[in-house]
Design goal:
Blueprint (H helix, E strand, L loop, with lengths): L2 H15 L4 H29 L5 H24 L8 H20 L1 H16 L3 E5 L4 E5 L16 H7 L5 H12 L3 E2 H11 L26 H11 L4 H8 L11 H6 L5 H7 L4 H7 L7 H8 L3 H23 L1
Antiparallel strand pairs: 1-2, 2-3
Helix pairs in contact: 1-2, 1-3, 2-3, 2-4, 3-4, 4-5, 6-7, 9-15, 10-15, 14-15
Length: about 325
């Protein structure tokens, strides 16, 4: 049986697990993980291993994480229809990609910040664009949007290197690079090029013992204790003040800074969503677009742009007063 026919048959077996005895249920779950979950996850991981962003030991660690999360989900699905998995192959793919992203954020924090910054620039400057191709993300000048013709960038000469090497003006740098390329470029290729031009390097911990690295916004807090105090005050703000503040929260590199609270363990993803008055799935869908500009926030809150500015200003003033009074 090939992989696609196997995964089509699996979903019916999940339903049958609910009717099985406890011992048979556990054996059935183990069988699904061994025959479908792990092979599919390995297949997806191979792509990252070829790209050298995941080595053999990393792949095994990620595979163990996926297996554990899948085990928990299958047990829940077998116990209750509410937790059902409609398409197991898609669910395993999502688990695997999330685990890989977690790994990359831990091991390559500087590259992750760079990727967030470039993604933000591509989607917020009218000259530039980012779009999905058949198999990869593509970017370039806005007039090229939708094109699937991706080529390797030509060698850089001094003028392009000088213009594209200005990390303080990322939109201008990217526009200069795309003009030199003359056509769309794979998103990951742009990340590689900008990392080299902007001298952004991750020092990998060979022992793999470091925890998640916080974004540069951590530099604005004197300590984790201060950041925790800040979060306690944020959740005391009025709902619209919280939304205006958090949806626009960014670090000095223009990346969104909400992940800072998650990386430091101060707030869970679900707590962030609750503070924003959103369901976690809604925040997840919005995550890669953060931070939002004031017009977008105004549309979400159904207020004017100036009201968004005023709400955020009031929020910051309150936070400053509270922290100065000893809340931190």
């Amino acid at each position: 049986m090939n992989m696609s026919s196997m995964t089509r048959a699996v979903d019916e077996r999940i339903e049958r697990l609910r009717l099985a005895r406890p011992d048979e249920r556990e054996q059935g779950i183990a069988d699904l993980i061994d025959r479908v979950g792990r092979p599919l996850a390995r297949q997806l991981l191979q792509r990252f291993r070829q790209g050298r962003s995941v080595d053999d030991q990393d792949a095994e660690d990620i595979l163990s994480t996926v297996s554990l999360r899948l085990l928990t989900k299958l047990r829940d699905a077998a116990a209750s229809p509410v937790e059902s998995i409609e398409h197991l192959d898609g669910y395993v793919a999502t688990l695997t990609l999330n685990a890989v992203n977690d790994h990359l954020r831990r091991r390559f924090p500087e590259r992750t910040r760079l990727k967030n910054r470039i993604r933000y620039t591509l989607t917020h400057d009218a000259r530039l664009a980012l779009w999905k191709g058949d198999t990869l993300l593509i970017c370039g000048l806005a007039k090229w949007r939708g094109s699937e013709a991706v080529a390797a960038p030509p060698p850089l000469h001094d003028v392009v290197t000088r213009r594209a090497g200005n990390r303080e003006r990322p939109a201008d740098a990217l526009a200069a690079f795309f003009a030199h390329c003359g056509g769309p470029v794979a998103f990951e290729t742009v990340i590689d090029t900008m990392a080299e031009l902007w001298h952004i390097v991750d020092v990998r911990d060979p022992a793999g013992m470091r925890g998640p690295e916080a974004p540069s916004a951590l530099e604005t807090a004197e300590s984790r204790q201060t950041l925790a105090a800040l979060w306690r005050e944020i959740v005391q703000l009025r709902p619209m003040q919280r939304q205006a503040l958090l949806l626009n929260l960014r670090d000095p590199d223009a990346s969104h800074a909400l992940s800072l609270f998650v990386f430091t363990g101060i707030a869970s993803f679900e707590e962030l969503a609750d503070a924003l008055g959103m369901a976690p799935v809604a925040l997840q869908a919005l995550w890669n677009e953060l931070p939002l500009d004031d017009l977008r926030i105004a549309e979400m809150l159904q207020v004017t742009r100036q009201q968004v500015v005023n709400l955020r200003k009031s929020a910051r003033e309150r936070l400053t007063r509270r922290l100065r009074k000893g809340g931190a």
